[in-house]
Every structure is written in structure tokens, then in C-alpha cells.
């Protein structure tokens, strides 16, 4: 953990703005999938690794989220007797050498009757059919077919007219020579049955045909995949396929009407005699044709990806309950049903639509996943249409069916078998920055090549924000590690952890989503749990934080969660959206602005939503009709509504967009991928990130120049990446660190080729600020390339040197088939195709999850005997440290017993504070110290002259005593002789000195026990200074009480207040700083308001005082503010600093000693992550862990080996890896 040095601390908590990269590699993003970076910091790479997770045996099946690989409607239809070939190998994570593919083929708009034959590109066209159709029909069918050596499949249109074809792939079979039971052996399609040459199947009659021992198929096989076609039936009915010699199941494979020709794919067990039987449930006869596509090896399946056939069984029949409504969903259980194991990878079933009230289509997908842009069954009103479906099964064991129709329909699902999942043996490795042990491997502050994450197995997916990391296991539970200052580990404490710990009370989790210090878990039952920070209502309840998961009330039927730093959005299965959290620019979309919501509120006017994405202040909804709605902040025109004026608190339509398949948002831009594989962009364009050849922002979508056939994209801060169908990549926009990968550091306003990439599958742009950009590409051979900055080893190539061209991440192979890469704050994670995970990069907050502690050198002199420091505090003459083991230590002055060791003797070395365990934070004021414990109680020791120990006495105590009546405390602060505790229910308790009414209970009498601050609820944080207290509420407003001699209560008066008053005109406040008689609020839009004293220019607007907030001019994109009694400092999101006020010793850092009534830039500072100040000095922690100082140096406090003051920043000698300062 942290070691301690004199006045500097380096330890558990992360530094805002520090860079990290997180790679989530649980499977490659589907075409049209996006990854976006909107965060503001940097970290390091990590990977979770398992020993045998994903299928590796030849012939094993790998399911993927259905993805569209062909749609001739965006190009040219297939002409009469014409062919079209489409790429499968190398697309969507499918290996280049895949043996066979499973996809849904839809014929639409044919000009004449005919049929389609699918076969491996380069092979001879077989005498078989897959889809039969009549003029004008839309007909779907599942197809299993070998893939050509060029990675393609060919479709032949045997018709006298042209037709449009759509192919939605749902999985593939691994190449090689299959040998294990349950492995699939594809063959060139061959006709094994055609009754037209003999006798049709009679009414209620059966026909059996030989599979085993025919056409090179072994005599003994477990199951067969074939296309079954019904032709010339003399009456309506259905066909049931089953293993010869077994009992006929209650199921169907093809439904038909008189004289129809209907095809459907069938996967069914083979009898011991090697035959399959077809039963004709009809009052008339019909012709039957069977074209085999492959078979499954016999034996007892055990290998991941092996197929286990079952006697067909009905798992869903809505005719017995309620139909699927318009744009509605129905989920049904597969795992754990009918003898099927609870954990299966994918299922094969026959889906029948019957009695639809309108035309439409059905999309099948894994429960808990995002609904894909794909279809499985198309139908017209009144039709009965069957189709075979192969689709992944959700973590909850269910499959979801979406009815894209204006009418209700009945659905029937008959399961035919399932595919075995990968073994639950994922472990994790990591590398990169390890300054706070986030690599968890007991090594250095970062790892430049992968190392194992401690104690993880059965990993399904990884999420993280660069400071805290999460692993979803195959059993539906969650592990977390890294930073925990807001309880985001979910284990009931606020102690950081360098190894994975279990998130309490979670089971049945299907996905995890995080942003900042808040985490969300979507459960298989459609409910949501949240934990961590809730300063703006992110937890969806009235509390300000929770260190264990709580259920978000009022949310059911949730299919996806999108999180921002200040709130979240839930997409429901009825196509509507709920939002909660901050709302200062209308980003909740509920028709209001400024008033946040700590409970989910419906986004106004949205229905038929297919997907939601969001930046911190704007949100976007992709509708099922391919159009887009946007709401929230509209700076730079990023809502795409044709103007940059006025935010919108209701969804507005993005102009000129149709046929959109996916969308991504960064903080200042948005991008839409269209069905024709082109890209549109809108919003800011200062670095050319719109890709339209200019640097002018656009308020409506413009086309990105020079790219087509785009399969996937990623967007970072000002930099954009596109992977094309041929495996090359293009990039455009900001390039100051070589993050475009083009061999230069020159920005580009048009898409240019990324150097050396020819077989890319996907690209992920690391979340982080523009000072630390990085990108990752997964190649078809399962390796990874990375480029950009590398100070903490986030490129994973064994060095810390930047690279402006892609370099190989060391030791990573086997990533083919992964779903996505996610990178955040310098940390990266990769889930490999075998189910294992790798990690690398920054480990500043233990986010790499590898065992052990790290060593630090962060101040000139070491504090004797302290290690494992989590956080610290100090009084005028006494220093305190809380250790990660929950103990507290103190050293220095002890005249009031403030060391807490039972004496009043000073100590020059740390001594343990008596009787304390489970300490999560310490604060100190004067001669009194306070400790917050993990159980929510508060303990105090030292000076008690005003009753500030809160134990009903005014006697000093040299050992900790419990503050009476305070439980469930989430945070504590103290100033002078007064102390405050914010409880987890959002109320506040105060005790101690009260001469100015600073206890806020309506009196001016001191209190030696806690009293409730009157009228305060929904409080997220408290700040106290010189007899005045301030509360920031979750709705973005601020309350103040106590001393008001300078107007620092901000209510337009100079009268003290002994109950809270509202600070005038403030909305959207996210943080507050106060010192002396001046207060500052940072708003969500990045501006700053100040009020109170301005004698030395500290208001920043040139006035001497103001009793109401005034805007500090010239400040935008502010991340945080620090205040001394006479000066103020603003850290901007770009890592630079502005300062204003008194400058007697050069503390403004602008090269002069002249006071400034307006903000001036501190010279030579970039990459600043945090700042602290005294009256005469300022200190900045940089993202590289070094420290700069400026101002008075009479006592050597600048730490630069000199004794003279400095009016510009100088480097503190010998300090690296610093996370925070105690002043």
C-alpha cells in the first residue's frame, strides 16, 4: 500500500486525471458496435486469465451476438441465376479459418419465385436449397454451411428475377479435424431425401431417411443439421422431426398451408439406426426434401462448444399465457429447464410465429444483452411462420424474443439441443502502472507486460474505470478490486483492495456497468443493483453512498444500463427509457432542468428504443426504425438538431439520420454508423474529429470522408477510429501524442490509414484525458496492437516509451472471438478466447488486482515505521495516518491527547491510536481528531473544550471515545471546534462549537452531543470553514449556515444563520471549496461561482465582496477548485491551472508577485491531477506522480533544495508517484 513521507502521502486513493486503460476482451464487438472514451484520467493494463474457458476443440461452436454481415438492400440485389459472396472469416471476431458458420438468411422483395443455395465460396455449387420463395414474399431460414478457404460464403439465386438477401450470423464452428464428442463436422450440402421421386408423406404419416453411413457420414453420429423443405402440401399442417426409434415429441419444425413451399433448418438427434423420422401432422399429403449440412460426433459431450442434442421439447408457448405485444419482449428459460444444465453457451430451437396481428419480425438474443440489429423470423398478418434459431443464452439461462411489429403475436419455441459452455477457470494477469498496487502482484507501480490477477476463476467479463476493476463470473457473482473511497468495491467497507473481493449480496448478474465511483449490476430478472458514490443521486435512491449493493426501486424489465459520471439510464424491454442522477442541463430528458432525480424518471416521449448511449451531459437513443433522438447539453451542436443554442430537456430528433445501426457519444461529439456502412458525425471539430475535411463544428450530421464498408468504430477524446471490412483501419482527429497510429503527431481532418494494420477486428480507444491517449486493436490472429502514450506501460510492450505506430502487446494471443476491448485511465484488461484474462498498465488504485503491496518514495524524508497507508490528515502540530488494515496512527504534538495513545506526551514517531479498528477515514481540526469506521460509527479524541468530541462531556480525552448517536455515517468533516457527519440517508449531524449558529439546529448554544442540522436531506457533501458550513445536495443546489460577516452564506445578506439557507441562484453544483470568508462552487457545466469576501481579488470578478454567487470570468471546463484564505485555484479538465487573488509571495504562479482580481494561467503546468494550497503556497500533483510547488519558501516548503520563494512552479525534489498532499 502506501508508505508515508513527512508532508506527502501516496496510497490508496486515485488521483483525478491520472491515466488508465481497461481492456474488456470477452468477445469482439459486432459490426456496428462502438467503444467510446469520455473519462478524464489515466491508469494501466490488466488481464483476467483462465485455464480453459472458451471452446478450443476442432468443431466446437462459438456463439456470438447476432450481427448482420450482408444486406444487399444497401448495394445491389442478386440477379437472376446470380451469386453474391460475403465475408465471414475475420469478421465480428470469427477466425479467418472458421470451419462453418450459422446464420439467418432472409429473402425479401423477390421479383419471381425460386430458391437460394448457400455453399462455401470456391466450392462446386451443390444440388440443394436453403430458402424457397414466391414473388414478393419475405422468407427467413437458418443456414449452417461450410466457409470457403477465402473466409466467404456464396449464395446462389435460382430464379428468373432478382432478390434482396440479408444474412445475420449467430455463431461459427472452430476449424481443424473434429474428434471430440459433440463436435460439428460440416459437409458440402447433400440431398439425402426427396419424396418427389417416390411417395409423399401421407396424412399423419411418417417418412424416415438414413443419415448415418451415407455420403461419408459415419454410421454413428449424435445429431444432424439439415434443411427441410415442404413442397406441394394438399392441406395445412406441420412437420415434426425426431430421432428414429424414439417417442414423437410435442413440437414442430415446419408449419405450412395448402400448396405452400416452406423451408426450415432442422437440428435433431439421430436414432441408433442412423435415421431421422419426419411426421406429417396434416389431413393431406406433402412432399419432403432434406439437404444435410453437417453432423455432430457421437459420444458423451464434455468439451466447451460441444453440442448436446435433446429430444425436442416445448419451452415456450405464449398461447397458454399472453402474446408478445407490439415492440414487446418475451423471455423463456433454457438453462435449468427440461434437464438442460443451468449454464449453457447457446441453444438451438425452432421458433414459430402464429396469429400475428400485423406484419413484422422477431429478433432472438441472449437475455440481459443488448438487442442486436438482426432478425430471425419475418411474418405478415395472420401468417404462421417457423424458423430454426441458434442463439447465445444469457447468464440467467434465458433467451429473449423481441416482437418488432405494430401488433401482438403468439410465439412457440421447441428446443433441439444446446452447446456446452467454457469451463469456469478464468484467472487474471496484469501489467502497467502499479503505484498503488493496482496490478496486485506485489511488484512495482506499473507493469509494462502482463501479470496474473490474484484468485480469479470463471471470469465472464471485466469492467473498470481505471481506478476500480470488476469481474463478472460465470456463476453470476461479481468480484471487485482497486480504489474504494466511495464504497465502490461493494464489500461493506471503504478500504482499498489490491486483490479481488466479492461484491456482497449479488447473484444472477448478467452484466456490470461502471462510471466514476458508481457501479451497476443488471440481474437476470430485469432489476438493477447499484453501489458506490451517489453525490448526484447516481444510486437511484435518496442516500449519498453505499458500500454494498442496493436495489434501484421502480426498475423492472431492464435490458441494458448506460452509466455516466453523474447518473445513469436504463433501457426497458418495452422500448422506453428511465434516467436518474444530475440534471443541470436537462440530461434526464424528463422536461425539467436543474433539478436532479434520485429515483428513475421516464425520459419523455421515447418509445421503440433499441439502444441508449450517453456522455456525461448528453444522451442519445437509437430507435428501432433507425432514427436517433438526443437530449441534454447542446454545446457545439452535439444534439444534431441544427443549432448549438439551448440545451434540451426533452429528446429531439437528430436531423437527417435514418438507417442507423449504432451510435457512440463522446463529451463533445456523436457518431452514427449506418446500415450502408458509412459514418455520420456532428458536434465539435477543433481537431478535425468530424472527419469532413474541416475544423468547423457542425450542428447536423455530416459524412466522414473517405471511408466505406465500416464494420466497427471507437471514439476517444478528439480521436476517432474505424475498422473496415478488409481488416484495415482508419483514424482521424486529434493526434498530439501519436494516438492516430499514423507515424506522425499531426492532426487529421480526414480519415487516414493506421500504419501496419491489415487484419484488424476491432479497436478500442482508451478513456482518459487528452494528455494520455492510447488505442488498442485486436487482430484476426488473436494478438493485440497498441499505440499512443505509454508512461505507465499501458502499451503492454515491456517499455514506457510512447509509440505513434501500433506495437504488439507482449505475450497476448488467443483473443479471436472476444467481444470488446475497454480501456480506462491507463489500465487494460483482455479476456482471452480460452476464457482467461490479462491486464496491464497503471495500477495506481490496485485496479489490476494482483496480490501484494508496492513501495513508494513520495517525499524527501520517510516517516518511520509506517506502511500500508490508506489516507491521512493533520492538525496544526499533529499528523495522522489510516492504514489499510483499519488501524490509525499519529505523531507530533499531543498537548490535548490528540495522539490518542492514552498520554499527553509528544511523539516524533508514529504511535498507534488506541482501540481503533476498521478505520476508513480520519479528519482533524485544531487539537481534535475524528475517525470514521466501516460500521458507520464515529470516534473522536483530543481537545473537547466546546464539546467537539460529541460524548456528552467537555473533558479532553487522550483515547478515542464514541460520538454519541451517530450511526450510518458516510463522511465526516471538522472546522474549528465544530464537527459534521453526513449520514447515508442524506441527513447531517453536527456537534461542538456553535457561537455563530454553525451547528445549524436553530440555536447558538454549543452542543456536546450531535444534533440534526435542520431541514437538510439529500446531502452529498459538507464543507466547513471558520464558523460557516456548506452542504451540496444531490439536486445540485447548495445550503449554507453559520457565520456570514462577508456574505459567505450567499443569500444576499450579511446576517448569520443558525439554520441552513439556500445559496441564491446556484443550480448544478457538483463540488464546493471554502476558506476564510469566500466560497466557490464548481458547476456541472465546468464554470465556477464565487461569493463572500473579495478583498484581495479572490472572487475573480474584480469586486471586493458579494453576498450572492457571481461567475468567475474566463473559466470553463473546470474539474476542481482549491481555496486559501486569500487566493483561489482552478484545475481545468485539460490539466492546466488558473489562479487569482493575493500574490504576495508569487503564489499565483504566473511569474509575478502582483495580485490578480481575475484568473491567470499558472505558468508551465500541464497534466495536473490535483492541487492543494496554504495561504502563501500552492502544490500541484501531476498525472506522472511528480509534484510542482510555488510561493513562499522561507522554511524550505517548496522542497526544491532552495530557500527563496518562487513565482513559477518548481519541481519538488525526489518525489515520484505522489497521489495527494497533506497541508
From TrEMBL:
Keywords: Guanine-nucleotide releasing factor, Repeat. This is Alpha-tubulin suppressor-like RCC1 family protein. Signal peptide: none annotated. It comes from the Bacteria. Residues 558-872 form the RCC1-like domain. PROSITE patterns: RCC1_3, TAT. Transmembrane segments: none annotated. InterPro entries: Ran_GTPase-activating (IPR051553), RCC1-like_dom (IPR058923), RCC1/BLIP-II (IPR009091), Reg_chr_condens (IPR000408), TAT_signal (IPR006311). One of its GO terms (cellular component) is cytoplasm. The keyword Repeat applies. GO terms for molecular function: guanyl-nucleotide exchange factor activity. SUPFAM superfamilies: RCC1/BLIP-II (SSF50985).
Amino acid at each position: 500500500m502506501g508508505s508515508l513521507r513527512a508532508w506527502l502521502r501516496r496510497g490508496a486513493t486515485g488521483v483525478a486525471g491520472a491515466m488508465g486503460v481497461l481492456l474488456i476482451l470477452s468477445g469482439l464487438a459486432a459490426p456496428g458496435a462502438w467503444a467510446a472514451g469520455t473519462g478524464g484520467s489515466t491508469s494501466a493494463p490488466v488481464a483476467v486469465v483462465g485455464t480453459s474457458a472458451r471452446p478450443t476443440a476442432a468443431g466446437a461452436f462459438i456463439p456470438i451476438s447476432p450481427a448482420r454481415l450482408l444486406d444487399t438492400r444497401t448495394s445491389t440485389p442478386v440477379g437472376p441465376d446470380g451469386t453474391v459472396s460475403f465475408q465471414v472469416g475475420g469478421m465480428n471476431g470469427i477466425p479467418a479459418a472458421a470451419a462453418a458458420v450459422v446464420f439467418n438468411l432472409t429473402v425479401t422483395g423477390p421479383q419471381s419465385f425460386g430458391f437460394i443455395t448457400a455453399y462455401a465460396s470456391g466450392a462446386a455449387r451443390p444440388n440443394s436449397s436453403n430458402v424457397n420463395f414466391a414473388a414478393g414474399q419475405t422468407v427467413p431460414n437458418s443456414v449452417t454451411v461450410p466457409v470457403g478457404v477465402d473466409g466467404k460464403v456464396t449464395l446462389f439465386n435460382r430464379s428468373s428475377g432478382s432478390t434482396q438477401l440479408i444474412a445475420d450470423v449467430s455463431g461459427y464452428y472452430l476449424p481443424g479435424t473434429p474428434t471430440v464428442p459433440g463436435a460439428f463436422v460440416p459437409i458440402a450440402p447433400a440431398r439425402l431425401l426427396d419424396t418427389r421421386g417416390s411417395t409423399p408423406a401421407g396424412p399423419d404419416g411418417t417418412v424416415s431417411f438414413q443419415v448415418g453411413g451415407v455420403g461419408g457420414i459415419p454410421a454413428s453420429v449424435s445429431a444432424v443439421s439439415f434443411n427441410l423443405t415442404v413442397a406441394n402440401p394438399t392441406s395445412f399442417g406441420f412437420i415434426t422431426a425426431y430421432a428414429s426409434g424414439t417417442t414423437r415429441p410435442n413440437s414442430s419444425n415446419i408449419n405450412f398451408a395448402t400448396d405452400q413451399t416452406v423451408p426450415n433448418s432442422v437440428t435433431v438427434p439421430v436414432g441408433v439406426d442412423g435415421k431421422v423420422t419426419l411426421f406429417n401432422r396434416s389431413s393431406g399429403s406433402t412432399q419432403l426434401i432434406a439437404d444435410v449440412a453437417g453432423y455432430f460426433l457421437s459420444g458423451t459431450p464434455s468439451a466447451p462448444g460441444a453440442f448436446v442434442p435433446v429430444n425436442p421439447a416445448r419451452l415456450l408457448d405464449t398461447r397458454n399465457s399472453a402474446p408478445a405485444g407490439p415492440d414487446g419482449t418475451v423471455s423463456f428459460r433454457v438453462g435449468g429447464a427440461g434437464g438442460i444444465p443451468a449454464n449453457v453457451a447457446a441453444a438451438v430451437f425452432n421458433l414459430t410465429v402464429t396469429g400475428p396481428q400485423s406484419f413484422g419480425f422477431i429478433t432472438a438474443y441472449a437475455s440481459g444483452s443488448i438487442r442486436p440489429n438482426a432478425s430471425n423470423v419475418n411474418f405478415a398478418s395472420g401468417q404462421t411462420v417457423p424458423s430454426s434459431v441458434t442463439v447465445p443464452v444469457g447468464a440467467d439461462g434465458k433467451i429473449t424474443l423481441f416482437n418488432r411489429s405494430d401488433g401482438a403475436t403468439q410465439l412457440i419455441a421447441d428446443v433441439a439441443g444446446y452447446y456446452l459452455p467454457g469451463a469456469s477457470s478464468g484467472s487474471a494477469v496484469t501489467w502497467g502502472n502499479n503505484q498503488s498496487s493496482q496490478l496486485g502482484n506485489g511488484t512495482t507501480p506499473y507493469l509494462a507486460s502482463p501479470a496474473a490477477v490474484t484468485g480469479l476463476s470463471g471470469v465472464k467479463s471485466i469492467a473498470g474505470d481505471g481506478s476500480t476493476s470488476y469481474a463478472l463470473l460465470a456463476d453470476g457473482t461479481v468480484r471487485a478490486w482497486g480504489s474504494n473511497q466511495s464504497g465502490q468495491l461493494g464489500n461493506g467497507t471503504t478500504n482499498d483492495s489490491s486483490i479481488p473481493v466479492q461484491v456482497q449480496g449479488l447473484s444472477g448478474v448478467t452484466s456490470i456497468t461502471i462510471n466514476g465511483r458508481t457501479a451497476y449490476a443488471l440481474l437476470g430478472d430485469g432489476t438493477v443493483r447499484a453501489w458506490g458514490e451517489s453525490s448526484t443521486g447516481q444510486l437511484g435512491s435518496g442516500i449519498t453512498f453505499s458500500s454494498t449493493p442496493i436495489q434501484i426501486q421502480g426498475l423492472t424489465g431492464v435490458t441494458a444500463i448506460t452509466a455516466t459520471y453523474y447518473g445513469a439510464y436504463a433501457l426497458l424491454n418495452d422500448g422506453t427509457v428511465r434516467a436518474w442522477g444530475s440534471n443541470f442541463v436537462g440530461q434526464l430528458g424528463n422536461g425539467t432542468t436543474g433539478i436532479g432525480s434520485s429515483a428513475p424518471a421516464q425520459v419523455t416521449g421515447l418509445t421503440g428504443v433499441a439502444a441508449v448511449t450517453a456522455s456525461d451531459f448528453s444522451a442519445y437513443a437509437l430507435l428501432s426504425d433507425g432514427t436517433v433522438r438526443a437530449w441534454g447539453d447542446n454545446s457545439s451542436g452535439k444534439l444534431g438538431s441544427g443549432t448549438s443554442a439551448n440545451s434540451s430537456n426533452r429528446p429531439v430528433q437528430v436531423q437527417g439520420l435514418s438507417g442507423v445501426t449504432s451510435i457512440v457519444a463522446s463529451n463533445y461529439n456523436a457518431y452514427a454508423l449506418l446500415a450502408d456502412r458509412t459514418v455520420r458525425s456532428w458536434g465539435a471539430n477543433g481537431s478535425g474529429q468530424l472527419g469532413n475535411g474541416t475544423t468547423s463544428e457542425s450542428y447536423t450530421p455530416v459524412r466522414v470522408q473517405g471511408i466505406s464498408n465500416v464494420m466497427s468504430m471507437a471514439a476517444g477524446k478528439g480521436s476517432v477510429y474505424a475498422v473496415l471490412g478488409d481488416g484495415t483501419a482508419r483514424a482521424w482527429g486529434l493526434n498530439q501524442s501519436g494516438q492516430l497510429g499514423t507515424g506522425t503527431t499531426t492532426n487529421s481532418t480526414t480519415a487516414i490509414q493506421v500504419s501496419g494494420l491489415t487484419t484488424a477486428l476491432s479497436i478500442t480507444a482508451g478513456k482518459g484525458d487528452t494528455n494520455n491517449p492510447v488505442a488498442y486493436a485486436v487482430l484476426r490472429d488473436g494478438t493485440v496492437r497498441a499505440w499512443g502514450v505509454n508512461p505507465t506501460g499501458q502499451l503492454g510492450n515491456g517499455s514506457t516509451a510512447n509509440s505513434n505506430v501500433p506495437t504488439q502487446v507482449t505475450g497476448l494471443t488467443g483473443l479471436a472471438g472476444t467481444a470488446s476491448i475497454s480501456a480506462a485511465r491507463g489500465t487494460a484488461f483482455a479476456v482471452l478466447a480460452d476464457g482467461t484474462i490479462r491486464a496491464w498498465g497503471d495500477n495506481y488504485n490496485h485496479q489490476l488486482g494482483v496480490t501484494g503491496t508496492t513501495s513508494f518514495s513520495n517525499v524527501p524524508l520517510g516517516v518511520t515505521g509506517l506502511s500500508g497507508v490508506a489516507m491521512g490528515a493533520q492538525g496544526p502540530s499533529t499528523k495522522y495516518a489510516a492504514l489499510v488494515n483499519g488501524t490509525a496512527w499519529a505523531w507530533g504534538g499531543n498537548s490535548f491527547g490528540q495522539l490518542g495513545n492514552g498520554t499527553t506526551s509528544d511523539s516524533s514517531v508514529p504511535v498507534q491510536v488506541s482501540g481503533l479498528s476498521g478505520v476508513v477515514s480520519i479528519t482533524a481540526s485544531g487539537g481534535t481528531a475524528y475517525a470514521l469506521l466501516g460500521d458507520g460509527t464515529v470516534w473522536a479524541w483530543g481537545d473537547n473544550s466546546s464539546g467537539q468530541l460529541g460524548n456528552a462531556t467537555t473533558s479532553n480525552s487522550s483515547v478515542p471515545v464514541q460520538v454519541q448517536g451517530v450511526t450510518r455515517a458516510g463522511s465526516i468533516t471538522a472546522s474549528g471546534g465544530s464537527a459534521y457527519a453526513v449520514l447515508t440517508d442524506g441527513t447531517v449531524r453536527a456537534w461542538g462549537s456553535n457561537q455563530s449558529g454553525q451547528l445549524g439546529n436553530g440555536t447558538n448554544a454549543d452542543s456536546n452531543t450531535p444534533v440534526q442540522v435542520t431541514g437538510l436531506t439529500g446531502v452529498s457533501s459538507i464543507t466547513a470553514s471558520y464558523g460557516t458550513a456548506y452542504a451540496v445536495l444531490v439536486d445540485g443546489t447548495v445550503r449554507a449556515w453559520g457565520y456570514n460577516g462577508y456574505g459567505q452564506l450567499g443569500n444576499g445578506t450579511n446576517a448569520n444563520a443558525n439554520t441552513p439557507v439556500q445559496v441564491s441562484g446556484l443550480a448544478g453544483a457538483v463540488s464546493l471549496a471554502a476558506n476564510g470568508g469566500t466560497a466557490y462552487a464548481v458547476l456541472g457545466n465546468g464554470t465556477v461561482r464565487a461569493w463572500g469576501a473579495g478583498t484581495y481579488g479572490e472572487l475573480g470578478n474584480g469586486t471586493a465582496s458579494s453576498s450572492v454567487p457571481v461567475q468567475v470570468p474566463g473559466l470553463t471546463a473546470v474539474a476542481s477548485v482549491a481555496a486559501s484564505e486569500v487566493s483561489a485555484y482552478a484545475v481545468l479538465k485539460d490539466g492546466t491551472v488558473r489562479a487569482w487573488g493575493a500574490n504576495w509571495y508569487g503564489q499565483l504562479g504566473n511569474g509575478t508577485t502582483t495580485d490578480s482580481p481575475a484568473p491567470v494561467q499558472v505558468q508551465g503546468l500541464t497534466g495536473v491531477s490535483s492541487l492543494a494550497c496554504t495561504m502563501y503556497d500552492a502544490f500541484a500533483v501531476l498525472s506522472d506522480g511528480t509534484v510542482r510547488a510555488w510561493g513562499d519558501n522561507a522554511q524550505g516548503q517548496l522542497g526544491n533544495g532552495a530557500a527563496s520563494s518562487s513565482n513559477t512552479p518548481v519541481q519538488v525534489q525526489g518525489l515520484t508517484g505522489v497521489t495527494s498532499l497533506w497541508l
